[in-house]
Sequence to fold (379 residues):
Amino acid sequence: MSGRLFFCFSWLWLLLAITGCQHGRPHFYPLGIYGVPSTNDLAVLRETGFNLVTGPAEKSFLDAAQANGLKVLAAPHTSAGPQFNARAARAAVKQFDGHPALWAWYLIDEPDLNRVPPDAVWRAQRFMKSLPARRPTALVLFKGSEALHYANIADITMIDRYPVPWLPLANFGQNVRQTRLALGRGKPMIAVIQAFDWACYPELMGPETGLRPPNYAELRCMAYGALVQQATGLFFYAFDDGRWKLREHPEVWQAVQRIVKEIQQRQPLFQAEHCWWPYDHFFQDWSHRFNAALESSITPCLLRVAEGSGGILAGDYILAVNTADQTHVYSLSSPVLPDGSLSVFEEEREVRVDKHGFTDTFAPYAVHVYGPFAAVRKF
Fold:
């Protein structure tokens, strides 16, 4: 096989592994969860709507995941960095790289936090590809501000940012945005959403008080906030990491289940094309137009669904997310908007559209989707 042909084949394999693409149409939207120590939990996670879990590169776990219709993000029995074990990685790839349940190799967790230099991650990545590992590699970052140093080393870049309640929720979207800008347009990027209580990890939080898990509105805001910032998949942390056990916290578990079900039902929106569009917006409360990250309190984007399914019809949609803890009366105008009215998706109401656009009210952390509509102008 020539070098050029092998390169093309490798990238085709990567595309199939990441997206599950058939005939150029992606149908696998990564929706995963961390902390799955037992195969006994796989069935309930699949029933919840997850299609991806973290787990060990072991035959029993991978076989059980395959039986339950789940993919697995697994470490190759080692981690990038000074202690990277080439022999262990080679053995893992030889044994499991072709397993149908393996989604990607987990190259390293938070190298920026753990002070593993980018060059060390690069060396592990090059070794994995030299074997060759045909499944994609993945790494997760702690800070979006470090993404420029680590972006595009692994095939899939992930960002975990867990702000509740010690940071403003807006910090989550800010870090996802920084990661997207470092990666460039269209590269795989997975956002990891906090679904735990920092009180379970007192050694990490020091004297921080008032700790609690995110509520439903915050969890949903992070999910749609990641979509606004062009994440191509989502993970939640965590189901059971030994300290935090999600099902022992019914309010959080029920919120996660509800959100995962909604994402699955709205999958064409989460896989839609993000379109550039000109718009102007205005906040009735002008003094609070910026959130705690000094970005717009409400962030809109234009999504184009080429082929709908389920309750999502083909067409354009505007997604707008309030990342602030204040209610806003918000106006948006754009030459793409049709005259007359816009449906507020699955809210059984409409907003009136005129030459000044439309106005709507956003509760704290609220998410509104408008459409579908045919854009008056396309840019």
